[in-house]
Design a protein that fits this description.
heterodimer, A: mainly alpha, 3 helices, elongated, B: mainly alpha
Chain lengths: ~90, ~200
């Protein structure tokens, strides 16, 4: 555990959750409507936004996903992230 | 395969422990209409589902159910954190505590252990999708029952989120069933099972 979260970190995490929710919802919608181009554009927009937010968060507070882990770091930040069930967000 | 993101799908931040409520909400972890059963149901059914869109839907919803299981577990964990022995005895949590201390273990509110017999993987596209639609409604009813018992806003918020997802998934599975039926004989959907019988060449 790397201590308590500050409010900026909590906000960033909350916003990632909001944007990710759009991608989950659109993924399931597109599974049954695979030719809806408007929905695909909507999905792409929010997926790009989420990827950027995940990278911004990782640069400041460490990775939420191994795909955005900083491999040049001197410490394994993935292991130092707070566990999500501890109430951070 | 799967990748893990170290965050919950929806925030769970409960400041007031309540062991009585935890014993009710744990049903959505390991109970008959819980999130563990939901994810195992869809992730088991998908292999023999012959239509790609529907197999993909089972995969993506089954994956989301894993995130819901994590949320429910987080709720139970936070509701039972730092309990005193007095609170454990007074709330009736002692029966769970004696076997599991404060560890998370999948069971129903009535104490029945998780059992794969609460779901089916029948190997028949119509049968499975109708089960899936019913499962989403059963989970929605359970969340409605839980919401009648919860008066703490911090617990209500994530439970309401989960309840809303059941309704969306019900809609998606309905679309999945329509996709399956569109590919079958409209005069007799049951002429053959697309997961088992072969079309005549």
């Amino acid at each position: 555990m790397s201590g308590r979260m500050n409010s900026e970190q909590e906000n960033m995490l909350r916003n990632i959750g909001i944007v990710d929710f759009v991608t989950v919802e659109m993924t399931e919608y597109l599974d049954t409507h695979p030719f809806d181009r408007e929905a695909m554009e909507y999905f792409n927009h929010y997926m790009r936004m989420k990827n950027q937010m995940m990278r911004d968060y990782a640069a400041k507070y460490g990775p939420l996903s191994l795909s955005v882990a900083d491999t040049c770091s001197k410490e394994w930040k993935w292991a130092l992230q707070p566990m999500p069930w501890e109430g951070g967000c | 395969m799967w990748n893990y993101e170290k965050r919950l799908q929806f925030p769970v931040k409960i400041t007031q422990p309540n062991a009585k409520l935890a014993q009710v909400i744990i049903s959505q972890f390991g109970g008959p209409d819980g999130e563990l059963a939901a994810s195992m149901r869809y992730l088991s059914q998908r292999y023999t589902m012959p239509y790609n869109e529907v197999a993909g839907l089972l995969t993506d919803i089954g994956t989301e159910e894993l995130a819901h299981m994590e949320m429910i577990s987080a709720i139970v964990y936070q509701l039972t954190k730092n309990l005193s022995m007095e609170e454990i005895e007074a709330s009736g949590f002692d029966k769970y505590y004696v076997d599991h201390t404060l560890g998370l273990w999948p069971q129903s509110a009535g104490g029945v252990p998780f059992n794969a017999c609460v779901f089916q993987s029948k190997g028949d596209a119509i049968t499975d999708l109708v089960e899936d639609m019913a499962a989403e409604q059963k989970a929605r009813s359970t969340y409605d029952n839980i919401l009648r018992l919860v008066h703490d806003q911090e617990v209500c918020d994530p439970i309401r989120f989960l309840r809303a997802r059941e309704i969306v998934h019900f809609q998606r599975f309905g679309e999945g069933l329509r996709i399956v039926q569109d590919k079958l004989d409209s005069k007799n959907f049951y002429a053959f099972n697309p997961e088992f019988d072969r079309c005549k060449e």
